[in-house]
């Protein structure tokens, strides 16, 4: 497992009974996580400094209960990057802190390449990877089907003082976008994607990871440059093994390019118990460059 252990502004304090207690800057949140099946006590009763508690509804979705005054948005830093955090629907905050392991990995590969690197970020959300790649010196094309998420990504780029860097923001369905890039002959040295299990594109296109992921990765293999430095698939689909994603990369990217392909869980250390909370799967191709 690869553990994101270089945070200062984020901390996974404790986990129990389907909930996790986290510090985001100076704001303490209690949020649900179905993987936490163990019982180490009632976290809300044990902690009187919680700002907000997200309650999941039996009918789907849920709501935030603000226990203390909580700002509409606030900023946290990861190394030289700054992100805007907000209380979103369905428990989210606009950032997945475990993804710092990929930000560091991509930054290192970009810096070590000693050439101009062009990165494509698909299902790009609020732009954590976009900011990291821009900071490392790459140009980035950021694609997401949600206009709201793209606007949030622009905020993060601005907050990280990266507005003068070469980035294009595109609201579109990722498969349609990649097909257009194939026709245009555009190429990328690195591709990163965070596909959901299910989703809808900009024009209501249906995405199903089990039906569509292989096709998308195969399409993406046609827009890689002659010497790509990385290809990353992130997944939070609990029903699919890490070996599935490794197989997808082996049968697509691995057939065309020489490099290392591997798949690992990524996670966060639980500070109170020193256990680790798994937070998804990261599958990578990386060049031997």
What does this protein look like?
Helices cover 27% and strands 34% of the residues. It is an alpha/beta fold and 289 residues long. A hairpin with a 6-residue loop joins strand 16 (259-269) and strand 17 (276-287). It is globular. The model has no long low-confidence stretch (mean pLDDT 94).
Secondary structure layout plus pairing:
Layout: E1 2-3, E2 10-16, E3 19-24, E4 27-32, H1 43-46, E5 52-56, E6 62-66, E7 73-78, E8 81-86, H2 100-113, E9 118-122, H3 128-136, E10 139-144, H4 147-159, E11 167-171, H5 174-184, E12 190-193, E13 198-200, E14 206-208, H6 209-220, E15 230-235, H7 242-251, H8 253-256, E16 259-269, E17 276-287
Helix pairs in contact: 2-3
Descriptive labels:
Immunoglobulin-like, globular, 289 residues, eight-stranded mixed sheet, single chain, alpha/beta
Q: Gist?
A:
By secondary structure, this protein is an alpha/beta fold. It contains eight helices and 17 strands.
| Average pLDDT, all residues | 94
Briefly note the structural class of the backbone.
alpha/beta
- What's the helix-strand series? EEEEHEEEEHEHEHEHEEEHEHHEE
The count of DSSP E runs of length 2 or more, i.e. the number of strands, is 17
How far apart are the first and last residues' alpha carbons, in Å?
A: 24 Å
- Coarse shape: globular
CATH architecture of the largest domain: 3-Layer(aba) Sandwich
Which CATH class of the largest domain is shown? Alpha Beta
Largest sheet: 8 strands, mixed
Portion of residues within helices: 25-40%
Kindly provide the radius of gyration, computed on alpha-carbon positions and rounded to a whole number of angstroms.
19 Å
CATH fold call of the largest domain: Rossmann fold
């Amino acid at each position: 497992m690869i553990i994101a252990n270089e945070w200062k502004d984020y901390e996974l304090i404790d986990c129990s009974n389907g909930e996790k207690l986290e510090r985001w800057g100076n704001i303490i949140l209690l949020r649900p996580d179905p993987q936490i099946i163990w019982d180490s006590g009632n976290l809300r009763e044990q902690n009187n400094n919680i700002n907000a508690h997200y309650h999941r509804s039996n009918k789907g979705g849920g709501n935030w209960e603000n226990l203390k005054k909580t700002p509409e948005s606030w900023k946290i830093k990861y190394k030289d990057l700054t992100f805007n955090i907000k209380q979103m629907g369905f428990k989210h905050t606009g950032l997945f802190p475990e993804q710092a392991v990929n930000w560091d990995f991509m930054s290192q590969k970009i810096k070590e390449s000693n050439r101009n690197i062009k990165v494509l970020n698909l299902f790009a959300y609020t732009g954590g990877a976009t900011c990291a790649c821009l900071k490392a010196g790459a140009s980035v094309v950021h694609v997401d089907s949600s206009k709201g998420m793209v606007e949030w990504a622009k905020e993060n780029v601005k907050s990280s003082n990266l507005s003068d860097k070469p980035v294009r923001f595109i609201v579109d369905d990722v498969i349609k976008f990649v097909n257009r890039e194939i026709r245009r002959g555009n190429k990328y040295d690195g591709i990163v994607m965070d596909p959901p299990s299910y989703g809808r594109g900009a024009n209501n296109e249906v995405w199903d990871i089990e039906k569509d992921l292989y096709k998308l990765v195969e399409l993406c293999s046609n827009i890689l440059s002659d010497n790509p430095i990385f290809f990353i698939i992130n997944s939070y689909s609990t029903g699919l093994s890490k070996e599935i994603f490794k197989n997808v990369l082996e049968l697509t990217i691995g057939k065309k390019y020489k490099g290392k392909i591997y798949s690992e869980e990524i996670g966060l250390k639980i500070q109170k118990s020193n256990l680790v909370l798994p937070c998804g799967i990261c599958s990578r191709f990386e060049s031997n460059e």
